[in-house]
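Title: Request for sanity check on Sugar fermentation stimulation family protein prediction

Description:
We are preparing a figure and want to confirm that the structure record we downloaded matches what your pipeline produces today. Could someone re-run it with the sequence below and paste the raw structure tokens into this thread? We only need the token string, no images.
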Amino acid sequence: MTGHATPGDTVWYSTSASLTRKHPHSWELTETQQGDWIYVNTLRANGLVREALKAGQIAELFGYDTLLPEVKYGAENSQIDFLLQASDRRSCYI
């Protein structure tokens, strides 16, 4: 994780009360001193992207009818975060 924050960056974390967790804290995101955002928790990042896709906030990805999360594909059984589909265009693997 050393590449995701430098001294002076702002780091956000969450705390869980679950007794079954190995560590009670999760690093969520970082704002760099240059104002860039780094989503460290991939579940949070995927949730944000999903919301943006559903709301049509990413112009290049607007107009797909179907949004499928965590789709497996290929002979090696790889997994993508999202599959966008529409009858009038090629599928988009994200």
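Thanks, this matches our download. The two ends are 23 Å apart (CA to CA).
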